[in-house]
What does this fold into?
Amino acid sequence: MRVFESEDGESRLIPLDFGAPFSLPNGLAEFEVVEHEGESDERVDTDWWGYLRSLLGDEVVDAGGESWPSSHEFFGDMMIVRLDEEVSEHSREIATAKLLSHPHIRLVLSDRGVLGELRIRDLNPIGARSGDEIVLDDIPDDISSTRVMVRESGRSILCDPTRAYFSTKLQSERLETLALAKELRSLLGRPLRVCDPFCGVGPALATLLGEPDLVGDVLASDLNPDAVEMLLDNLRRWDRREYPAEPSPISRLYEDRIAGLADASELQHDTNLAGRWDMLLVNLPHRTIEILPSLVPLLDRTGPSMVRGRVIAAEADIHEADRAIRHVLPPRLEGMPEPSLRIKRDYSSTLRLCSFEAWIAPAP
Ligand SMILES: C[S@@+](CC[C@H](N)C(=O)[O-])C[C@H]1O[C@@H](n2cnc3c(N)ncnc32)[C@H](O)[C@@H]1O
It folds into this structure.
């Protein structure tokens, strides 16, 4: 990432390294730390191409054309790249060039896709850094671990993409959810009761809990025991109190915290959980519309509430999906826009990842 100007032109934003301390040391402490999507540093990209060319020669690199993994995803001190079949035989040189051009990266993994309902990633280590050395074969366990801390919203989020879903690309989505939550809090005039029944390791909660007096009670649950194990570790640090080390079925752990393993569609049947939440997060984009009816009973309908969700849909089907969402949700709050899908990015050549929010009116 590179240094760039803030939107108001008043400041220069300097990217912080993953390893930067949460409280900046003396001399820097006067500067505010803000959350902002980064802007990539093209010089680093130039370096990666330079290293690749010196390792493979111009002819091979030019022959690979668009197939080289020019983009990548950072996960703490790991980098994930997608290897096109056409260039996969050069994975050693790709890993070496990436490690040389990104001196803070410990491990480079190739992405072999997402597995099943739990959305965990199939990742294969293709290179690592051990001190000053680059290791490409028999990468030792201590440097090939995929359990990492990611920094976001001034918090550290423990995650392991091979055991539980987590996407660093959703940071701007989470900031949008934060802005909506603040609006809802203004409307209700009190901290929100937030229900995140597909919470994964809890990144949406990290952002919301980071805002003083925004959140009161929290329900955080997921079907994946590994995700819940990391969620509990995260909550322990964010809340600064004890949480169980092992995942167990959903239960009340504190007066204001309910967490654990659960199938989201079953929560409605628990009278202690139904009808209690101001903000419902629905992050199961392949199945949101189908599962929404089983989640609506969780909303507290004695006042205004909100559903914030993500949906994967073909661009041509977006209007139909909007209609389906409006159909399954209770009547909306007067004066607020109707829920409609906004395209956030491409999911595939035909499918789009979209998000929406719905302001729900109190039941008459
Ligand atoms: C797209 S991920 C979102 C995770 C998290 N909210 C985030 O933003 O990182 C969907 C999550 O839903 C969980 N999941 C899938 N089906 C579920 C179900 N029926 N009930 C509860 N969780 C489920 C998966 O394990 C996964 O962690």
About this structure: The chain has two domains: 42-146, 165-360.
